[in-house]
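Long-time lurker, first post.

We've been arguing in lab meeting about whether pyridoxal-5'-phosphate would sit comfortably in this protein at all. Half the group thinks yes, half thinks no, and nobody has a model to point at. So I'm putting the question to the forum: if I give you the sequence and the SMILES, can you give me back a predicted structure of the complex? Inputs are below. Any interpretation is welcome too.
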Amino acid sequence: MKPIPYSRQDISTEDISAVVEALQSEFITQGPTVELFEDALARFVSASHAVAVNSATSALHIACLSLGVGEGDLVWTSPLSFVASANCALFCKASVDFVDVDPVSGNMCPECLERKLRNAEVSGRLPKVLIVVHFSGMPCPMERISQLARLYGVKVVEDASHALGASDNGVPVGGSNLSEIVIFSLHAVKVITTGEGGMATTNDDDLAAKMRSLRSHGITRDPTRMVEPTGEPWYYEQRDLGYNYRMTDIQAALGLSQLSRLRSMMERRERIAAKYLALEAKAPVFTPCVRERCSPAWHLYVVRLRLDLISRSKEQIFNEMLKRGVRLNVHYIPIHTHPFYRSMGFKVGSFPNSERFYSQAVSLPMYPSLTFAEQDYVIESFSEVLTQ
Ligand SMILES: *Cc1c(COP(=O)(O)O)cnc(C)c1O
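Top reply:
Settle the argument with this. Predicted structure of the protein with pyridoxal-5'-phosphate, as tokens:
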């Protein structure tokens, strides 16, 4: 029997029909279905624009470029994230630094940010862009973070790879005015998927136009954005050095179909999260705290092990669970501790909250098609392994 994974895609027969239909249509690369998907996602998160690309990594890259990140600039992000949150700055030849996380939520800690901004102003090394990560789909306290960033003239990108469908104070992640750009991942394990894919949303017309151009070679076909519009029907202009980061209509058809089911898939995730609360009474773990008026997307369900009360190591727990048919995961190895980042001068020990969080964190199975019977089995096995 295949082990129960920590996450998996949810593909319906409607999704499959939508993809087949796309394959039989006139366009298979970026075409009208990409536009429909962009419009639908923009509407879903109440943003003015959505720009579809081939991955969230590409979305982060063109988000940084469109905000003017370049050589000599500094970008800050959270160490408790997937490496792409930091790599995007290096793609632009900028430097990276990190702001430590809150030890309970794993989200960027506003007090750490405030302290670091104050020191950076004194030393004249303020970042151009701050990339905030909504860890596990739990929205960061954006009002506070945005207020601090504005105070120091720092632009904000939200890496909402985990947070499509989340909202805070009734405002959907992706539609607020608390950041310049919000990016989403549509990778297979994320909340909805296009196989590989990403989306950037913004309320700024110029940033949207820049990102549209950068995802397709820096080319524009819009005469109002040309240097020398000739009026010739075939004419287009390259204005910047862009990339081929386009999404296909095949992927967009899958994305549209998935998006139409996002609400019901979210409800399912919420019910799974509610059921996992039972773990608090059964095993030495802390379950995630949800801030008031905050509705997480529950991309991941990350518990923190109370290691002082557990006789097994995390590795033993992982292997014991695998023996019982459950494949756990761990999010994330702090970015600054990877060999590549250490070779740039980062040191283990420099972001202690993120390192402690990593040592405690375990991601339990969380996906819409996880049955309650399977989840009961996960809860029982996990409690047993932790208390034996
Ligand atoms: C998945 C993920 C990414 C990268 O997404 P891709 O679509 O695979 O490029 C970036 N940031 C975070 C936080 C992620 O979880």
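For your lab meeting: DSSP finds 14 helices and 15 strands in the chain. The first strand starts at residue 49 and ends at 53. Whichever side wins, do check it experimentally.
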